[in-house]
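Changelog-adjacent note: as of this version, every example in the card shows the full chain rather than a window. The one below runs 493 residues end to end.
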Amino acid sequence: MAYRVKLNLKKLKIWRSLKVRLFLIMFLMGVIPSIFMRVGILENYESRAVDVRTSDVQTQLRIIANHLITYNYLQDTSSEMIGAELEQLSNLYSGRVVIVNGNLKVVKDTYGISEGKVIISEEVIRCMKGTNTVNYDEVNGFIEITVPIVETVSAQNATEDMPEGTEIVRGVMLTSVSTDSIVMTMEILNRKAQIVEIIIVFCIFAIALVLAQILIRPFDRISKAIGEVKEGYTNESISVPDYLETEHIVNAFNSLLVRMKTIDDSRQDFVANVSHELKTPITSVKVLADSLLAQKDVPAELYHEFMVDIAEEVERENKIINDLLALVKMDKPAAELNISVVNINTLAETILKRIRPIARKKNVEVTLISKREILAEVDEVKMSLILTNLVENAIKYNKEQGKVDVTLDADHQFFTIEVADTGIGIPQESQEQIYERFYRVDKSHSREIGGTGLGLAITRSAVLRHRGSIRLESVEGKGSTFTVKIPLTRVLV
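Full-length structure tokens:
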């Protein structure tokens, strides 16, 4: 039941409002203490009033108890003065006074209904032993008080068994006192307290409403500022430093805004680069085709040479398109990995066997160093892509008689692939940009070396898809080392 109520509250939009929650918190924090205060004051008054009434009655009863002993009232109830005192006490406190002698027999009852009867009750027995008792019956509205009638042995009546000063309980005064006046006063106080409480509730309601509105204003300003950015009226950073919380939200949004600007600029650069990269081969093909069309009786040798150039440009165009498609697929958030258990050592050997003929053409020696056997849960196709791109780059940008070392290692959580070459290296200022699409360190020799400028971008995307990392260490003129670190088991997110 409680879960269902909570679920229904979550569905209510108004309950999800921070303003409403702040208002309710402040309202309840003001109202609940006022209710407890009213109840506490009334209970404290009732307790105090009962104590005062009890104390007054006990004082009066002790005085009368002394008179009872003095006038020997327990044996002779004819004293008009004692009778008057008892009646006065009974009328004053709207109560009843019962006098019980040592034999537990009622000798006087101001109501006149129990005289001559024997009373045996816990309170009377305890009082006969010298213990006063007080019972407050809140339901029926009276206080029951018992006071012992004590006689002190004088010097004249002293004996060895009862020396002078000995107190002897001769009887008990059993008194019931009405609390109607206390109840009436409490009702008056309660009505006045309720009026004050209603006024306080209205005041708290207004204050809570105003404070909730004031406290929520910074968030409204954030919403308005974000709305202006969304509508395109501005793309400037926003600032609402009223609270630490709003500052954190604004900082996070500004960081997101900077990232979105960077992505937008990158997208524009990407479109420009793609246009340029695709246009270059097409332009070359058109120039070659126009040259052939402009000449008559073209020799077969020249025709063949031009067609070879056209085929190379078409192949280059096709490679760019394929790499772009691969990159687009890799960038999709929903792109799935075809995870299987792969022997990384065997995979590396297969790839290097396929690449070594290319390396021999450039007189580059490729060596595989396996420090231990590695079985990992990865996408085999994308792992092949990572290894192929890194090793091919190490060969392309190597020196004559150079070397490429591929080292495989693992610990209990990750495996690493390290591709080190003795090539031309990468300048320090370019190392942060090498993963950008179409970025080339040496643009003047890019056509000679080949490639599309997308290899490292594709490699990095594939590594990140495996929740891994890629790191570069390079010294210009001495070579580069790429280190890929990937979890041995699939990381679920």
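Structural remarks: Residues 443-450 have pLDDT under 50 and may be disordered.
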